[in-house]
């Protein structure tokens, strides 16, 4: 099997995933998964596609991720991994699709408007 390359996005985070057969090593920006995503929740999100398709420890993963926050990056990696697993075996699609792991989350931060404090919050109006 050659290396499978897929891209995942979430908010402003972009993750490039390179998946190849191996022993289950996951490196994110040349660091171990546990060093980059320190909380258990984020590690679970990244490993979720492998757990659902019962492929834990079968593939080595190299990830380049940039932009956004740590949670957006973890979810971008999850989407890219899900897409890569579907390319390897089309049967994984039936497991990942109902869990919503193949859907790109379209929600983005709303822009701040002129004359307002934030996107929707207004400046306080005071009547003297």
What can you tell me about this protein's structure?
By secondary structure, the chain is α+β, with helices and mostly antiparallel strands. It contains four helices and five strands. It has a five-stranded mixed beta sheet with strand order 1-2-5-3-4. Helix 2 (about 40-55) runs parallel beside helix 3. The protein is elongated, with a radius of gyration of 18 Å. The mean pLDDT is about 95.
**Poorly predicted regions:** none
| Distance between the ends | 74 Å
Order of helices and strands: EEEEHHEHH
Major sheet: size, sense and barrel closure?
A: 5 strands, mixed
- Based on secondary structure, the structural category is alpha+beta
**Fraction of residues in H or I helices:** 25-40%
Question: Radius of gyration from the CA trace?
Answer: 18 Å
Question: Key features?
Answer:
32% helix; 4 helices; five-stranded mixed sheet; alpha+beta; 128 residues
List the helices and strands and how they pair.
Blueprint: E1 4-10, E2 13-21, E3 26-28, E4 31-32, H1 33-36, H2 40-53, E5 59-66, H3 70-88, H4 93-96
Parallel strand pairs: 3-5
Antiparallel strand pairs: 1-2, 2-5, 3-4
Helix pairs in contact: 2-3
């Amino acid at each position: 099997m050659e290396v499978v390359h897929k891209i995942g996005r979430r908010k402003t985070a972009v993750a490039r995933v390179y998946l190849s057969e191996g022993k289950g090593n996951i490196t994110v920006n040349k660091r171990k998964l546990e060093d980059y995503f320190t909380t258990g929740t984020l590690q679970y999100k990244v490993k979720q596609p492998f757990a659902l398709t019962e492929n834990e420890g079968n593939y080595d993963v190299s990830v380049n991720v940039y932009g956004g926050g740590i949670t957006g990056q973890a979810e971008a990696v999850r989407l890219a991994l899900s897409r890569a697993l579907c390319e390897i075996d089309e049967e994984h699609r039936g497991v990942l699709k109902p869990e919503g792991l193949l859907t790109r989350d379209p929600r983005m931060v709303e822009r701040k408007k002129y004359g307002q404090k934030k996107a929707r919050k207004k400046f306080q109006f005071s009547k003297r």
